Amino acid sequence: MRFEVEVGGRPVRFQRSLIFTARACEVSASDEQVEDSIAYLEVSIQPRGVTQNTDPRQIFRGWMFSSSPA
After folding, report:
1. Is 67 exposed, middle or buried (0-12, 13-18, 19+ CB in 10 A)?
2. Euclidean distance between CA atoms 52 and 26, whole angstroms
3. What is the pTM of this model?
């Protein structure tokens, strides 16, 4: 799975119900032993059939590493 979310931008809906918001992104320096990218993400769920009056339910908030995204 691959798609783009602008850091500090609008939330992006993926497929039917997942909503991703990227709050920050950091990349390790090239001289560090391990190169990695990390992003501070908020992931919410809101099925499309649900009324718009229902707020999305947050299912994840925290730092995610590109080397181990799960």
Report:
1. exposed
2. 33
3. 0.75
